Amino acid sequence: MSAPDGITSGRLAVRACVFDAYGTLFDFGSAAASCADVLGDKAGPLTALWREKQLQYTWLRGLQDRHADFWTVTGDALDFALESLGLHTPEIRSRLMSLYRTLRCFDEVPAVLRNLKAGGFATAILSNGSAGMLADAVRASGLEAVFDQVLSVDAVGVFKPHPRVYRHAVDELGVPAEAIAFVSSNAWDAHAAAAFGMQAVWCNRYAQKAERLPGVPRFQIRSLDALADRLQLA
Fold this sequence. Notes:
two-stranded parallel sheet
């Protein structure tokens, strides 16, 4: 795929690969898809609205300086989406929230992470997700052995894209920002990591248009399969 304007090509020399979780490693759409027997043709709209409100609530809470753990935010966003679509029943809410803790990882993820580890890269997750949510998701996909660190914003008390979040990865990994490839399917997240000083990679799974935000990702890919060919160990 050709790179969009302003995004460079070539190989990045880094020591660590840090991944966003939801939408990058784990398919946030898999929860509603697993409830198609109840949701029917509303599974897609529910996924979209749930995700939209989930992100909005993280940003708005950050602006208000009223942090809550991501599990609470995810439940609040789901309540809004279910009510909006006329689906708000205790049974479906409980089922969807349970499924969100064990979201399916994208097909290429296990092999990509194993190859990065074998290649000598440090690997980590840096996510808005609460520590318990991330532990459950990693365990459900059998990925415990491929991460050196699983880092939650719980430790800094603010959601992405606050710079303290990206600083947390630098501090915990002991690797300078410029030696970290930060990979996210959320363009705003990749831009924020780039503005912080990381070597950001946008995994544009959903064929979105480029954002107009501070920071510029070094390049974009359509799936994580393409990542290894764009990195070299520093």
